[in-house]
Specification:
Layout: E1 7-9, E2 14-24, E3 46-55, E4 57-66, H1 67-72, H2 76-98, E5 116-119, H3 125-138, E6 146-149, H4 151-158, E7 179-180, E8 183-187, E9 195-199, H5 201-204, E10 205-218, H6 224-227, E11 229-242, E12 248-252
Parallel strand pairs: 1-10, 5-12, 6-8
Antiparallel strand pairs: 2-3, 4-11, 6-9, 7-8, 9-12, 10-11
């Protein structure tokens, strides 16, 4: 998930940003006027930007290991460090999509107020996704850049067949296109099952990073010093923002 979100650096502990709440476009062709009255010649547009703030949150995790493990097992340090970083990225993925915004949680896309939504209903999954994309384009004046789907939900799409048994999303011998209506699809367990999330993440979202993933080791935890144990910690500080709610849509009931 995080690979599809623009990342901005920050030195602040609270992110102040502008949420676009109203957009009215009055641009229009206008003939030259020789009138001497004070009436406006050019149409007046409306762009309302409302200041919002989101705190930078701390995302940590640690693993206990013995000093003997770290000394005797070849490659264990690199392995543990890699797994810790994966744990943080997996949790960050979930928070980007599903965080409820109540501290210390991030505000994930699914919890953004006034986000668009499209119920699957009697439609096929591809039809429902396309209707959600149309909402983003027609109402949000944005262009969907990615679709996030739980693997169980994408399975439904991947296994779609024609009446004569031909797989629509490609032969079982091939990986198949991870795209729908031309938009990349990311399969992730961070997505809520039975709900796909799509939107213009490229232009209307940002992950502000005060500190990227850092690693630290200490034996000063509980009884660790007297038992020859180490605590290896990985942590980061981030904040997720969305600049226009109508640039995002959930597809429910898939």
């Amino acid at each position: 998930v995080v690979d599809n979100i623009p990342m901005f650096p920050t030195s602040m502990d609270t992110i102040a940003y502008m949420l676009e709440t109203t957009f009215t476009n009055s641009a229009a062709e206008t003939a030259e006027s020789t009138a001497t009255t004070a009436a406006d010649l050019i149409g007046e547009s409306t762009l309302v930007l409302t200041e919002q703030t989101r705190p930078v949150q701390w995302l940590p995790v640690f693993i206990p290991v013995t000093q003997q493990q770290m000394e005797d097992v070849e490659g264990i340090e690199a392995y543990v460090n890699g797994r810790l970083q994966y744990m943080l990225r997996a949790r960050l993925d979930l928070q980007i999509l599903r965080g409820d915004g109540v501290a210390p949680n991030l505000l994930g896309t699914n919890s953004v107020p006034s986000i668009l939504t499209q119920a699957k209903g009697a439609d096929s999954v591809p039809d429902a996704v396309y209707k959600g994309m149309v909402q983003v384009r027609a109402t949000g004046f944005a262009q969907p850049s990615v679709v996030f789907a739980h693997p169980n939900d994408w399975q439904t799409v991947r296994l779609l067949q024609t009446a004569d048994g031909i797989y629509i999303w490609g032969s079982p011998a091939d990986a198949g296109p991870a795209r729908i209506w031309g938009v990349p699809v990311v399969e992730t367990t961070a997505a809520r099952e039975n709900t796909m999330t799509l939107g213009d993440y490229a232009n209307f979202s940002a992950l502000f990073t005060k500190r990227g993933i850092t690693l630290a080791v200490s034996d000063s935890h509980a009884h660790y010093f007297t038992r020859g144990m180490l605590a290896i910690r990985a942590d980061m500080r981030v904040s997720m923002v969305h600049f226009r709610a109508s640039a995002f849509c959930t597809i429910t009931g898939v």
